[in-house]
Amino acid sequence: MQLKPYVRSLTIALALAFVAGCSSTGGTQDGSAAGAGAGGTGTSGYGSGQVSGSGLGSGAGQMVGSRIPDERTIYFAFDSDTIRPEFEPVLESHVRFLSANPGTSVVLQGHTDERGTREYNLALGERRANAVKRYLNVQGVSPSQLEVVSYGEERLAARGHTEEAHARNRRVIFAY
Amino acid sequence: MRALITPWLMAALLMCSALAQADLTIDITRGNEQATPVAVVPFAGGESLPEDLAQIVADDLERSGYFAPLERRAMFARPSSSDEVTYGDWKALDARYLVVGRVSRDGGGVSVRYELLNVGGESRMLGEVISASSDQLRAAAHRISDKVFEEITGIRGAFSTRIAYVTSSGVGDSTRYGLYVADADGRNSREILTSNEPVMSPAWSPDGKKLAYVSFETQRPSIYVQELASGRRARLTSFEGLNSAPAWSPDGRKLAMALSKDGQPDIYVMDIATQRLERITSSSSIETEPAWTPDGRSLIYTSDRSGGPQIYRQDLGGGESRRLTFTGGYNARGRFSPDGERLFLIHRGSRGYQVARQDLDSGRLVELGDSQFAESPSVAPNGTMVIFATQRGGNGVLGAVSADGRASFVLPAAQGDVRDPAWSPFLN
């Protein structure tokens, strides 16, 4: 990412304030975001709730909004496209980043484990990536920033037939 | 003499280099106990050839599951024509049929005179001379296998056909993918496409001249059609979302496919000449893996509208779709037998994902083989075998099982994974 001019930072801070307001549906938002390890230093400004209140919050805002979150993979249960609660903080960190950077787009790569037929798995991977896309849309990310590409079982992250390997393969990756 | 040897040596070297690429070898994993004993005697005059024609014929016949070739060391006579045969010798060895032959040099190639003999009836069933250039020796042997197989079983042989398949090596982002075409016995492989992005779902055109496949080379899945002889290709679809599972209509004019441009994956049929699309299904569930009935009037496809994946049939004239599979919670990627009376599919049973056969009349489903990780079944054009992808020793290999489940073999690659096989139509 390139450095943003000062004015841009302010816009980001305002956007963050907006997002923070919008995404307050869950009561655990702040705590989970801070505890997610999702963005390292990036989450601190948000968790403190100081961004919107301070005109000088641009430093924190810049850190939150200008860095792609470190956690870019979330995992799924067998035969499921349900977002697991423990990954909501990861999604929230991407919501913040994408909302702060409306010119940035991301490809949501859907993956499955090796079991079952390849073409059907391609469809299942798309279903998972679409579940993430819907989540981000609901949180205010513009659909124009999101593209879904399913890889099914064509690009496994882990080999082997263990449940552990399967679990590592059932994933959606944020590819910026 | 020197001038004669050099081309053979060249041919042998070329073959070795091809072998190093992506040829597949064959391991018979289960022989058919009811297979018919047959003896294929080494062809006289073939000793100096780079290929052992009689061995290729014996291997072909064994792989079919219909025949059990006699081991060479059990042969105490080596006749090369019917007038040299003492039938009593072969009756003593329980051989029901006997193949004998003689090879002679013919310009730059060879000519093979072979005969098929009925041992019990002490009669000649077939006698023929075929010529082949020096780089077509294996093809000549497969042609003999085709003739012998058809003469005895009444079923057209499919040994001269080919298979397309996908290879991959590496894991994660550094994976390399390859699309290959090889002879049905895994030899003479030829590279069609290599890519850093996934390649999948190869499908033969009914004339055997083109492959449709899905490639992610633009970071998104698109359906391509490639002419094998020229390598020329065209991108047929690149809609938003899935562009997958191409399947040629029997007349070669249309491709059925799964697209998700309108939401969830649905089945569409594209007229290749006009590129016009017709939507066949529209539902909020997954519909994919289309295949045509042999008469071209209906499609089958996998849908999870009932919860798990099951196979449905839709007449193209309209009307309601009809569910075909009811045994178990996972039945997917159906493919028809050439006569349209049976379905081969992937079924999740107690031991995992297996190739299964369902008779359409009775609805009865039978598991074939004992693979845990079977995928991508593809039926030989004569309906006798099904090739599929499976795993062995942590690697992806191709497996094949006879339509009755009695015989099976695997075709592992020298290195990396092999998968996504597609059996060609008859090519001659």
Describe the structure.
The complex is a heterodimer of chains A (176) and B (428). With 176 residues, chain A is α+β, with helices and mostly antiparallel strands. In chain A, 47% of the residues lie in helices and 12% in strands. In chain A, helix 6 links the parallel strand 2 and strand 3. Chain B has 428 residues and is mainly beta. Chain B has 4 helices and 30 strands. Chain B has helices at 2-22, 53-63, 87-92, 137-153, and strands spanning 27-30, 36-40, 67-69, 97-106, 109-118, 123-133, 162-169, 176-183, 190-195, 199-204, 210-215, 222-227, 233-237, 243-248, 254-259, 266-271, 277-279, 287-292, 298-303, 310-315, 322-323, 331-336, 342-349, 352-359, 365-368, 375-379, 385-392, 395-402, 408-411, 417-423. In chain B, the strands form 7 sheets. In chain B, strands 1-29-28-27-26 form a 5-stranded antiparallel beta sheet, with no helix packed on it. A 5-stranded mixed beta sheet of chain B has the order 3-2-4-5-6, covered by helices on one side. A 4-stranded antiparallel beta sheet of chain B has the order 9-8-7-30, with helices on one face. In chain B, helix 2 (53-63) packs across helix 4 (137-153). Chain B is globular. The two termini of chain B are 35 Å apart. Chain A binds chain B through residues 107, 114-120, 122-124, 126-127, 148-151, 154-161, and chain B through 171-173, 175, 198, 200-201, 216, 219-221, 241-242, 244-245, 258, 260, 264-265, 286, 288-289, 302, 304, 309, 330, 332-333, 346, 348, 353, 372-373, 375-376, 391, 394, 419-420.
What would you say about this model in short?
The complex is a heterodimer of chains A (176) and B (428). Chain A has 176 residues and is α+β, with helices and mostly antiparallel strands. Chain A contains 7 helices and 4 strands; from the N terminus they run ααααβαβαβαβ.
Structure keywords:
heterodimer, A: 176 residues, alpha+beta, 4-stranded mixed β-sheet, 47% helix, elongated, disordered N terminus, B: 428 residues, mainly beta, 5-stranded antiparallel β-sheet, 5-stranded mixed β-sheet, 13% helix
